[in-house]
Amino acid sequence: MRILLTGANGYIGMRLLPELIEQGHEVICAVRNKNRFSSKELINQVEIVEIDFLEDSETPEKIKNIDIAYYLIHSMSGNTKDFDSQEAEAAKNFNKLMSQTSVKQVIYLSGMVNQDKLSKHLKSRKAVEDILYKGDFHLTVLRAAIIVGSGSSSFEIIRDLCEKLPVMVTPQWVRTKCQPTAIRDVIKFLTGVIGHEECYDQSFDIGGPDILTYQEMMEKYAEVRGLKIWILSVPVMSPKLSSYWLYFVTSTSYKLAQNLVDSMEVEVIARDDKLARILNIETISYKEAIEMAFYKIEQNQVISSWKDSLSSGRFKKELNKYIKVPTYGCLLDKQQKKTDNPEEALKRIWSIGGLNGWYYGNWLWKIRGYLDKVAGGVGLRRGRTHPTELAPGDSLDFWRVLLADKEEKRLLLFAEMKVPGEAWLEFCIDEDNIIHQTATFRPKGLLGRMYWYSMYPFHYFIFDGMITKIANAKSEKQLAD
User: Fold this and answer.
1) What pTM value is reported for the model?
2) Which residues contact 393 (CB under 8 A, 6 or more apart)?
3) Does domain 2-299 have CATH number 3.40.190.10?
4) What is the pLDDT of residues 81-128, one digit of tens each?
5) Domain spans of the chain?
6) Which CATH number does 314-475 carry?
7) Rg of the chain's alpha carbons, rounded to an integer?
8) Residues of the chain whose pLDDT is less than 70?
9) What is the DSSP-derived secondary structure letter of residue 285?
10) What Cα–Cα distance (Å) separates residue 33 from each residue in 3, 220, 296, 305, 321?
């Protein structure tokens, strides 16, 4: 079948795409910026079309003859005030575009909405569902609670809490019940309903076999990991304090933390397992889902992460506007160093950040990350999705990858930390094996210039030490000799 995949750069979209291709479907990926298409290894097996569903636009010719469409669009992590109106607008524009196509079925991944009192996030999910039901197509809605898999926001938050805090004083919502679902099962459900007429014009809950409180989920995670944790819940922690608690302890943004806390006070339990019986799917337990996630992590096979979404940082839409590094009105720190081993130096550049650190003065980088968190920024905890691979749009600690071209031996990063201005960090290796490392800062007013000059002594030592470590990179063979 010919399938339109919206949200192709998202956590679910990137997991779903290889399954659709493996099943022999012809896939058109809808993205806002084709230069940021994340599944580079599949780029020759799909068609790509640029669509911004927040804008009222003409239907691209490429999607007019589709059979199926996946609606995987959401805006929850981007802001706290108007994401619901944005989601409604996107759904209306989607319906309008689909009315000019031959689509027969739309598949929408939503959240469980079985309680009388819903969070703003779940109300928005239900409102989108109601809008999509007005479309000129058969709608199949899959309603999930927490999705457990390597790189999912829920898994990463539980991982951060359990790995970092052996003793936790927690809000009351840790006793709220939910029904987590393994990402592998979510993909089975999403592909299983394709063209399945029994699933047309219906909404299904999809949940795993376990109904657990958030506290039990953390305890089972600790059991799988062989950790000892002690959890004490208290009634005095307000939603705002709970949001700050999640924000400072985990890698989540404050905006996403607020929306998550709002949702965590609502029980999300499936009404039944009707769809699992229709599709003959035996769902995976929560503990097994955790074990599978760590297998992927240990094998460096994490396909996608919520941290790479643009809404996890400063970007809202376009990366391209930042790729051309400005020169006028900018302050620069330029470093050059010749390397005798350009291949290893390039590997070290491509492995920078995350668990590998920044090669020099890592404690200073950590302090800067902590200060960024205090100021409301993203901090260093986002890390990186893969230890040695980078692609445009990836998050890298408190940077965003703008360009990663190994053939040109060039890596360009843009700062998503809270600074009074805009900052770029670029690495490139020229034909003479000279590494060029350039930090560019475009200050915003007098405060921006004061910030740059106050940090200049630290920049001098950090940037010089960093390029020296990169230039002196040794291969395993050289180390053995």
Assistant:
1) 0.71
2) 9, 36, 38, 308, 310, 319, 400, 401
3) no
4) 677 788 889 999 999 999 999 999 999 999 888 877 777 778 888 999
5) 2-299, 314-475
6) 3.30.530.20
7) 23
8) 36, 38-40, 75-81, 236-263, 296-321, 380-381, 475-481
9) P
10) 19, 40, 28, 18, 11
